[in-house]
Specification:
By secondary structure, this protein is of the alpha/beta class. It has a single domain, classed as TIM Barrel (Alpha-Beta Barrel). It is built from twelve helices and eleven strands. The strands form two sheets. Strands 1-2-6-7-8-9-10-11 form an eight-stranded parallel barrel, surrounded by seven helices. Strands 4-5 form a two-stranded antiparallel ribbon. The longest helix is centred in the last third of the chain and has 12 residues. It starts with 12 loop residues before the first helix and ends with a helix.
Length: about 290
């Protein structure tokens, strides 16, 4: 199956080629970090790709002087050791910090600007652009400076961020787009924009009773030439809701991958976002015989 509208087939070629090669794609949540390699950094993305990820996810944050970083705000205590939100900082302040490594020890690594990420990932790597909707116009101006990025970047946004959908619909460069969906109506709403290059949908289902849980929701997307993205990532199991009915990384690693990743693949999902790309790569290889 090839995803996206036929009129944008050339733009979507790298994505569809990757599906032909791997059948199910692995997306690395904020890259892969350990030791002195910090999350959402060029090093984390290189590590994830080396461990078998087909796509990396990068979050967007902007400082008071308009610099866009690959950084998830509210991670400041973990990365910088301070409680101040990055969006209230200047770029000088951000780049003055020694970051904290995986053991909370100071290290020489620093957070990367979006431009540094795009400079580094310039060999056709697939990049999921997350959390850009808060400062979409500055992010879009940067993406527009990199001609090859149109076939690499998949922009993600919820349907509540109408300005993103409207801007991309009118924008002359037809970046790939993936809406964050909580209902079948969300999927249909995204497809109602005639010039929007919608290639897939991220399906959120907090419980197995939610509308987008299961094979029927996946089939609904496939019938509309959309791939399906599911979050196997586990952000917390005490106060945080599961993103797909607790079919996740935890159960895959602590019990049996067939109960987590295998179940998602059997449902028909096309992209699994994980914090464990190497383990998922090996399981995918065994399950799909690729």
């Amino acid at each position: 199956m090839r995803f996206g509208k036929e009129c944008y087939a050339e733009i979507n070629q790298k994505l569809n080629d990757k599906f032909e090669q791997q059948q199910v794609l692995i997306a690395a949540h904020r890259g892969s970090w350990a030791g002195n390699i910090i999350q959402n950094s060029v090093g984390a993305y290189k590590a994830a790709l080396a461990m078998g990820a087909d796509m990396v996810e990068t979050d967007m944050s902007m400082t008071t002087d308009g610099v866009i970083y690959s950084f998830h705000d509210r991670s400041e205590p973990r990365v910088f050791g301070v409680a101040q939100n990055i969006k209230t900082m200047t770029s000088t302040q951000v780049e003055s910090y020694l970051t904290k490594n995986s053991l909370a020890e100071p290290c020489s690594r620093r957070v990367n600007r979006l431009t540094e990420v795009l400079d580094a990932l310039n060999h056709g790597e697939l990049i999921n652009i997350d959390r850009s909707w808060f400062w979409f116009e500055p992010v879009l101006r940067i993406l527009d400076q990199y001609p090859n990025v149109v076939s690499q970047a998949i922009i993600k946004a919820p349907l509540s961020a109408r300005h993103v959908l409207e801007t991309l619909n009118a924008h002359p460069i037809k970046y790939m787009f993936m809406p964050i969906c909580y209902s079948l109506k969300d999927i249909e709403d995204a497809l109602s924009y005639p010039e929007l290059n919608v290639v897939g949908a991220e399906l959120i289902a907090f419980t197995p009773q939610d509308e987008l849980f299961g094979e029927e929701a996946v089939r609904f997307c496939h019938e509309r030439s959309l791939y399906t993205w599911v979050n196997a990532i586990t952000l917390g199991d005490v106060t945080t809701k599961a993103l797909y009915g607790c079919v996740d990384d935890d159960i895959s690693i602590l019990q049996d991958p067939a109960l987590g990743w295998g179940k998602l693949i059997d449902m028909g999902f096309d992209v699994l976002q994980t914090d464990w790309p190497a383990i998922l790569r090996d399981y995918r290889r065994a399950k799909l015989s690729i």
